[in-house]
Design goal:
By secondary structure, this protein is an alpha+beta fold. It has one domain: Thiol Ester Dehydrase, Chain A (Roll), CATH 3.10.129.10. It contains three helices and five strands; from the N terminus they run E-H-H-E-E-E-E-H. The longest helix has 16 residues. The chain is globular. This is Hotdog domain-containing protein. InterPro entries: FlK, FlK-like_dom, HotDog_dom_sf. It holds the Pfam family FlK.
Length: 131
């Protein structure tokens, strides 16, 4: 595997009706649902790690710690960032953060936490699954 000196990524999303707590089954309010926030944070970690993967390698999530700190309304732009905080062998731990974005740029912190991923050989990983 080739190590990228600074593994980080920033992704941008806009909250839609499909992203709300009511739509994803995590509540009844028309605001960004925590499961969708988590999915966006995982997507950012994948975007950060993917350039460092060798052919045939992928990564799998193994641990998630996420605090959902503030609401985001439908139509709100959200920036999600992931930054490599720790690496040891195949293990990669990312700091993640999500912020509501306004005309002046990223603002109120929506969520933050850590996501751990492990680099694996995709075919070998799938071959261990008994079907």
């Amino acid at each position: 595997m080739t190590q990228v000196p600074s593994a980080e990524a920033a992704l941008h999303f806009t909250v839609t009706d499909d992203d709300t707590a009511a739509a994803v089954g995590s509540g009844t309010l028309p605001v960004l649902g925590t499961p969708r926030l988590l999915a966006w944070c995982e997507a950012a970690t994948c975007a950060a790690i993917d350039p460092a993967l060798a052919p045939g390698e992928t990564s799998v999530g193994t641990r998630i710690q996420l605090e959902h700190l503030a609401p985001s309304a439908v139509g709100q732009a959200v920036e999600v960032t992931a930054r490599l905080a720790y690496a040891d062998g195949r293990l990669r731990r990312f700091s993640v953060a999500a912020r509501n974005v306004g005309p002046e740029g990223p603002g109120k912190l929506v969520g933050s936490g850590e996501i751990t991923r492990v680099v694996v050989d995709g075919e070998r990983f799938l071959s261990r699954i008994s079907g």
